[in-house]
Amino acid sequence: MTMAYAEALELPRHSVDQWVAPDRETFSENFEGLELERVKQLLATDEGKKHLLEVMDADPAMKEKMLSLVDRNIEQLEKKESFLMKVVKMPLHVTKAVGKTILKHPVLSAIGAAGIVALLIYFFGPAAGTVGMLGQRAIESFGENVLGNVPVLTPEAGFEAAAELPAIGGLAGPEALEQATQASESAGSLLYQNLEAAEAAGMSDGAMQTVTEAADRVIADPMLENINPVQKFFEAFPPQPNP
Amino acid sequence: MKRMNTLYFTRQEQELFSALPESLKEGWTVKSVETLHEESSDELFFRLRMAKVQNYALKAVIDSLKKKSDLAEAVKHIDFTTFSSEAQGELFFLLGVRVLTAMILSVLAHAMSDEDLEGLAGLTYIRDSLSAVNAPSARL
Questions:
Q1: Which pLDDT value is given to residue B23?
Q2: Rounded to a whole number, what is the distance in Å from the CA of A156 to chain B's nearest CA?
Q3: Is A87 on the interface with B (CB under 8 A)?
């Protein structure tokens, strides 16, 4: 049942946001109070899967991906919990020393900052606050390169279809935006929000990719004294157009 | 105050460490790391989506950045010393093992003080912990 992460993340952004939980408490709230372990048990049987899909009110066409999303979330939550339990055991002065070391060494602070930019863009959108000239350029670039290929929507599909835009992947058809904007005011507004959400997901993954590339450069040459993945990201955008 | 004096180093890191002045190396214990379990890009993309941005320290930084007129400039002034261990955990879980390795190598290449090594001890401990949970055989 378990799919690759990339496949699970092909689900619409609103599904990902709704069902991918950052912690055990949120996860349990999502599943009407069921504990993570119970959901894990349910995922192991056909009856259990059926029950979960009912709770999730999942689109039948997407049920495998929805279950896989939950399965992957459980896997990552278990890893995260186990990791955080170890990290919080660090003595306070060591935590402080880590913070000071990141601050003191430009390469480390640049990489850490790029990770935070990825978070900022994903959760608050590319236009969160004002992202400055570089950010604006990135957004415009994204608009030219990706939003020109928005998903095929029909005016009839309106509201529901607008909500189904994938978080990543699945873009097609330049006529779609024009058609979709002919839909109702609320659908148009939602379309905009969803386009922005999809845009944010693509951009934040681009930012994460830039972090990895920066890390690779440092690994190849630890003597590097400066890198600027944030600027590189904003300059080197666009994000990958979807296949 | 409990001192954390173990450094978890790969072979390459041990070589860089051995090149440091004796006075700097004194008092530190090195443990060998044979295998690092890194995440795939897609796994990190998934972690990004499950980040707890409501964590107090992360939220404070993000809220502050949202108000800035130039993000690229503003991120240069993030104060990482305000990050609690939970916030560091959130960030490093998102960044992954490979990024931690880059950070460790960079500090090792420029280490000049005992404070640098104390930071390294924390970073190598964090990487070791993350690598352990990534290991296919990890019992969680």
A1: 94
A2: 31
A3: yes
